[in-house]
Amino acid sequence: MLHRRTVGDVMTEEVVTLRPSTPLQEVAALLDANDIVAAPVIDDDGIPVGVVSASDVLRHETGRPDPQGPDGSDEHAWGKARARTAGALMSSPVFTARADWTIPRAARELRSRHVKQLPVVSDDGLLTGIVSRSDLLDAFIRPDAEIRDEVEQDILGRILGLDEGTVAVEARDGVVTLRGHVPDPRLVPVVVGLCQGVDGVVAVDAHLDAAQAA
User: Fold this and answer.
1) pTM over cut 0.70
2) What is the total count of domains within the chain?
3) Do the domain assignments include residue 167?
4) pLDDT per residue over 122-148, tens digit each?
5) In sequence order, which ranges of 75-166 are alpha helices (DSSP H)?
6) Are residues 128 and 185 in the same domain?
7) Are 50 and 83 a contacting pair, CB within 8 Å?
8) Is residue 106 part of a domain?
């Protein structure tokens, strides 16, 4: 079976976390020292209850709502402005991911939620990691040699059982080019489909026929 990488394969397991009682000055220092854009807030059991981002801190530090503006009577906005701890400033509820999610599923969740990262939780809700947009992008930006080896060894060899050298594989900038012979014409779309499912493959250019090699 072809291995598709999951959130668990690309997530960061050592997560910088905050507590609801963490002072904002410490929040800012932790984000800056670890060069991260956000950190999950966890309760005493290790369950994520919110997220504080660098933009939250910056908005807090750059001013309060304009009393005459659209948020002038918004108590929630004023509450954020008066925040002194991570618990008061955090965004909640927190959107989370699971380690067994596929990369495309996590990417769709990030996009639909308009967030840059998702805490990853176990079945019992405990924090096990965090996955960001850059983590997901890395899954698609793979070395061409790695893509070629997966096509040759896993798809052509292990899954389809084709003899070595039957199909020549070239990978360049994520485009896989196939040249050679397959024993049955019905295998051509199968080979193409399997190659398209390999992480990092942008397109497949197939030059295959069902004639036996001379």
Assistant:
1) no
2) 2
3) yes
4) 999 999 999 999 888 877 778 899 999
5) 75-81, 86-89, 103-113, 133-140, 144-150
6) no
7) no
8) yes
